[in-house]
Amino acid sequence: MTTFSLTRVSAMCERHFYVMRRSWPRLVEMAYWPTMQMVIWGFLSQFLATNSSYIANAFGVLLAGVMLWDVLFRGQLGFSLSFLEELWSRNLANLYCSPLTPLEHIVALICMAFIRAAIGVLPAMLLAIPFYDFSIFTLGIPLLAFFFNLLFMGCALGLLVTAMILRFGLAAENMAWFLVFLLAPFSCVYYPITVLPFWAQMIAYALPSTHVFEGMRAALFDGVFLWDHFAAAVGLNAVLCLIGIGVYLFSFARARKLGLLLQVGE
Amino acid sequence: MNAAKTIVRVEQLEKRFGDLKAVDGLSFTVEAGRTVALLGGNGAGKTTTISMLLGLLIPTAGTIHLFDLDIARQRHKVLGRMNFSSPYVDLPHRLSARENLIIFAKLYGIKDVAGRIKEMAKALDLDGLLDRRTGSLSAGQKTRVALAKALLNRPELLLLDEPTASLDPDTADWVRRYLENYQHEQGAAILLASHNMGEVERLADEVLMLRKGKIVDRGTPEDLIYRFGRQNLEEVFLDIARDRRVGDVAEGVSASAEVTEA
Predict the structure, then answer these.
(1) B143-190, pLDDT tens digit by residue?
(2) pLDDT-based confidence at residue A56 (cuts at 50, 70, 90)
(3) What is the ipTM of this complex?
(4) Dihedral, A22, A27, A30, A32 alpha carbons, nearest 10
(5) Cα–Cα distance for residue pair A221/B165, rounded to 1 Å
(6) Looking at the complex, does the CB of residue B71 fall below 8 Å from at least one CB of chain A?
(7) Which residues of B, range 172-231, sit inside 8 Å of A by Cβ?
(8) How far is the CA of B169 from the CAs of B17, B146, B175, B196, B205, in angstroms?
(9) Which terminus of chain B has a smaller tally of CB atoms within 10 A, N or C?
(10) Is the pLDDT confidence value at B253 over 60?
(11) In which band, very low, low, confident or very high, does the pLDDT at A220 lie, cut at 50, 70 and 90?
């Protein structure tokens, strides 16, 4: 068994930094949508605040939901795009002929997902303070728990997307953009889980994101941290990440069997 | 005199894609300091064979030993001692040549990254190209950068798939000379897949003639030319591609005449 190499992981991250630092439009794009979402939902929340007692008490819930949802979306997208860049540049065979192991590649992609998500949502989180006098950072330590749970869920989904791309080539590329939105209605980002019909609640409880957003609402409404939801999110994420890694490695082995590593590309 | 160390040992290698046998029972060895060429038309199994040696493709049957290690089980122990270049893969275009070389130097665990890149830049005349985006380089310049990537880790085994494809004759000649020098200095084993007969005649110690995934003949370039009664390897290639055999030539049948009549 080859020793896990942090040098190789950092080399893979460095490869993406080179692209990012040279391409300011990419950096702007990363921060653009989360910021736009925050602005739009912020104004909507302000309007509703004057018209609904529920919303009046929960002005920050919508904004926090928007921002944390973007952590999940940007995490998944960051993971998938970093992988797709290797396909677009026909570099995958070069990488997998080097001593880089699939596990090291996955760790590097997780690091890049974290960095891309941070670049995406941090400006929105900071701008919300002067715009709406709302700071998500007042959540304190629980914010980190929410952030990392959503990030790891995004990476697990990213693993599933990249596994599909390995198997079906760039025809599966669009999954990187829409897969996470299939889960949005069940994740209960803007409403409590009790709003959903019973069958949908069963699906919702199986998603780490639902537990994160339930926890977020409790923290914002009542100032409490719900350990049971946190534990459920961590446990489900562990299962989802293991499934993601397993499916990725299976797809990688299958791609080696079918000769797809040399064929995938533009 | 000591026998050269065997770097590549392939036995009864086979690869099927459904009903198609892309590679059918190949066996060969490549010793240190020697170049073996895989020669054959499109679909003969050259790239498939190289992909299996790189571990990008899993064989259906047979074994591959590199440096006496079975790559089915110990692939990651040998990857750092080999490298490759192929027109079917590319380096990221948005990165500069230097950035690409830095990344691969780190992936291959090279200690003095800057020093090694400086060495490669001098050897391959890359000084003026290092800070240009790889996507903006000409085909010849990209080939030199790809070659620098392939030689960064001083590989003991070099797998080259069409190393001079799409290069002008001058650049192609330059690349071949560089490869000859590298092999002379490092004693590396080279497995070469090419359509370029002149290149194979010049570089190869042994030629494996492939057709439909099988080795249909083998020998030194001079030996093959002599046995087929031809002037050069290109004529031998055409004989084999058109399914003519040494015996036909020995019996006095003119392959070219027959082909013309056909």
Answers:
(1) 889 999 999 999 999 999 888 877 788 888 888 898 999 999 999 999
(2) low
(3) 0.84
(4) -140
(5) 66
(6) no
(7) none
(8) 36, 18, 10, 11, 22
(9) N
(10) no
(11) confident
Residue ranges per structural domain of chain A: 6-263
Three-state DSSP at A48 gives: helix
Which residues are B28's β-sheet partners? B10
Q: Which tens digit of pLDDT belongs to each residue from B84-101? A: 998 888 899 999 999 999
pLDDT tens track for A112-160: 999 999 998 999 899 989 988 888 898 888 999 999 999 999 999 999 9
Contact A123, A35 (CB under 8 A): yes
- Mutation target to probe the A interface, by most A beta carbons within 10 A, among B51, B56, B83, B111 is B56
Report which residue type is found at B105.
A
Could you tell me how far CA B105 lies from the centroid of its own chain? 21
What are the beta bridge partners of residue B160?
A: B85, B192
Please state the domain extents for chain B: 6-219, 228-262
Residue A79 near residue A162, CB atoms below 8 Å:
yes
Interface of B with A in 9-68 (CB under 8 A): 17, 47-48, 51, 54-58
Distance CA B183, CA B178 (A): 9
- Domain B6-219: CATH superfamily is P-loop containing nucleotide triphosphate hydrolases (3.40.50.300)
